[in-house]
């Protein structure tokens, strides 16, 4: 028999109210024991919670959700008790005494998934909603939890199952008059249309993943250009050591910012030069790697130096920025590559930085802001859509010559989409997804 589980569903620590939730076949019996009878389904009831020996636990507001119309699809009881640690402990003890066990992380959601209350992407959306710290994250998670990705992937999968049936019909009952081109004519266009949808879904500049995981910026430049000073200004704290000694920063120092409603990770890096020792060389290597992988690069140039750092401009791409720093000591004009923004600033005098920030916020909104369609939000989604697309491209190329091989490829694509939504159940995928949840969800 399935265990009946419980967990504190509200945050830990002292609060006005704490919510403890129980789910499973024994939830009703235990609720009835402690509250002296079941409340009416889905109606709040104020009751005394009493141990079987007659001693009182608390006065509580109780909710009874008989399955399957509950969060998990099982019988669920909710205890809204006073939020003191001793009250919570007393209720937990009473639940354990009745044979209930503490839930594993994500176990409530996993049961909801197992009972068909949500698909895997909706469960991920729920986890993201609980973790959401910005408006963009909240909206994205809410849409995903509401089934935006589930319905898209589900529709693709349905269409593929239909196409597969057509292909398999062709293999099993080859019509004398029906030349192989007949199959290409029937199965080709829907496969092509699906490939186009998948390509468009993937070609979103990683918008959803950046909203969820953060947009990354690498601050790079020669030693003493003012990179650490700049990152401290952006973070509004002394995150990195600033000194007039070139080569001060050796490791990557990352700060987390919220700008224009998006999470941004800005990385301070070691000054780029011929390193004087192995540690600095490693720092420079890390700086270059980060510059390569970041979503945006900000190149700091010290305009007070006799020879301006022109060497690193080649690392910039459209959408990046040059910060001409220390304009309190000098000035310079510099030709920047097409599509690269340029700002004259003095970090120590806080000059020109508002213009940079306004530009940055505009860039974030332009790159991550509201497109209509729901974006994929995890690397897991990207990998599986890519795998499905690869199989379909293969299937298209085999359709005319080897329909049975094309069918196998379509099957592979169906399986990839099934892994996305959890329609094919793969224990290790589920373990991975649900283990990232917090306890009580
Ligand atoms: N006058 C002036 N000095 C600045 C400005 N910005 C930074 N500095 C100074 O320049 C020196 C180097 O600043 P850092 O922020 O440590 O430079 P960095 O690019 O991080 O240097 P490394 O970590 O060594 O690569 C410090 O003495 C700063 O106070 C500026 O706008 N004007
Ligand atoms: K320095
Ligand atoms: Mg530094």
From TrEMBL:
<dbReference type="InterPro" id="IPR018948">
    <property type="entry name" value="GTP-bd_TrmE_N"/>
</dbReference>
<feature type="binding site">
    <location>
        <position position="248"/>
    </location>
    <ligand>
        <name>K(+)</name>
    </ligand>
</feature>
<feature type="domain" description="G">
    <location>
        <begin position="216"/>
        <end position="310"/>
    </location>
</feature>
<feature type="domain" description="MnmE helical">
    <location>
        <begin position="120"/>
        <end position="438"/>
    </location>
</feature>
<comment type="function">
    <text>Exhibits a very high intrinsic GTPase hydrolysis rate. Involved in the addition of a carboxymethylaminomethyl (cmnm) group at the wobble position (U34) of certain tRNAs, forming tRNA-cmnm(5)s(2)U34.</text>
</comment>
<keyword id="KW-0342">GTP-binding</keyword>
<keyword id="KW-0963">Cytoplasm</keyword>
<feature type="binding site">
    <location>
        <begin position="224"/>
        <end position="229"/>
    </location>
    <ligand>
        <name>GTP</name>
    </ligand>
</feature>
<dbReference type="InterPro" id="IPR027266">
    <property type="entry name" value="TrmE/GcvT-like"/>
</dbReference>
<dbReference type="InterPro" id="IPR004520">
    <property type="entry name" value="GTPase_MnmE"/>
</dbReference>
<feature type="domain" description="GTP-binding protein TrmE N-terminal">
    <location>
        <begin position="4"/>
        <end position="117"/>
    </location>
</feature>
<dbReference type="InterPro" id="IPR031168">
    <property type="entry name" value="G_TrmE"/>
</dbReference>
<dbReference type="Pfam" id="PF01926">
    <property type="entry name" value="MMR_HSR1"/>
</dbReference>
<dbReference type="InterPro" id="IPR027417">
    <property type="entry name" value="P-loop_NTPase"/>
</dbReference>
<protein>
    <recommendedName>
        <fullName>tRNA modification GTPase MnmE</fullName>
        <ecNumber>3.6.-.-</ecNumber>
    </recommendedName>
</protein>
<comment type="similarity">
    <text>Belongs to the TRAFAC class TrmE-Era-EngA-EngB-Septin-like GTPase superfamily. TrmE GTPase family.</text>
</comment>
<dbReference type="InterPro" id="IPR005225">
    <property type="entry name" value="Small_GTP-bd"/>
</dbReference>
<feature type="binding site">
    <location>
        <position position="224"/>
    </location>
    <ligand>
        <name>K(+)</name>
    </ligand>
</feature>
<keyword id="KW-0819">tRNA processing</keyword>
<dbReference type="InterPro" id="IPR025867">
    <property type="entry name" value="MnmE_helical"/>
</dbReference>
<keyword id="KW-0479">Metal-binding</keyword>
<feature type="binding site">
    <location>
        <position position="243"/>
    </location>
    <ligand>
        <name>K(+)</name>
    </ligand>
</feature>
<dbReference type="InterPro" id="IPR006073">
    <property type="entry name" value="GTP-bd"/>
</dbReference>
<dbReference type="Pfam" id="PF12631">
    <property type="entry name" value="MnmE_helical"/>
</dbReference>
<feature type="binding site">
    <location>
        <position position="21"/>
    </location>
    <ligand>
        <name>(6S)-5-formyl-5,6,7,8-tetrahydrofolate</name>
    </ligand>
</feature>
<dbReference type="InterPro" id="IPR027368">
    <property type="entry name" value="MnmE_dom2"/>
</dbReference>
<comment type="subunit">
    <text>Homodimer. Heterotetramer of two MnmE and two MnmG subunits.</text>
</comment>
<feature type="binding site">
    <location>
        <position position="245"/>
    </location>
    <ligand>
        <name>K(+)</name>
    </ligand>
</feature>
<feature type="binding site">
    <location>
        <position position="441"/>
    </location>
    <ligand>
        <name>(6S)-5-formyl-5,6,7,8-tetrahydrofolate</name>
    </ligand>
</feature>
<feature type="binding site">
    <location>
        <position position="249"/>
    </location>
    <ligand>
        <name>Mg(2+)</name>
    </ligand>
</feature>
<feature type="binding site">
    <location>
        <position position="228"/>
    </location>
    <ligand>
        <name>Mg(2+)</name>
    </ligand>
</feature>
<keyword id="KW-0547">Nucleotide-binding</keyword>
<keyword id="KW-0378">Hydrolase</keyword>
<feature type="binding site">
    <location>
        <position position="78"/>
    </location>
    <ligand>
        <name>(6S)-5-formyl-5,6,7,8-tetrahydrofolate</name>
    </ligand>
</feature>
<dbReference type="Pfam" id="PF10396">
    <property type="entry name" value="TrmE_N"/>
</dbReference>
<keyword id="KW-0630">Potassium</keyword>
<feature type="binding site">
    <location>
        <position position="117"/>
    </location>
    <ligand>
        <name>(6S)-5-formyl-5,6,7,8-tetrahydrofolate</name>
    </ligand>
</feature>
<feature type="binding site">
    <location>
        <begin position="268"/>
        <end position="271"/>
    </location>
    <ligand>
        <name>GTP</name>
    </ligand>
</feature>
<feature type="binding site">
    <location>
        <begin position="243"/>
        <end position="249"/>
    </location>
    <ligand>
        <name>GTP</name>
    </ligand>
</feature>
<keyword id="KW-0460">Magnesium</keyword>
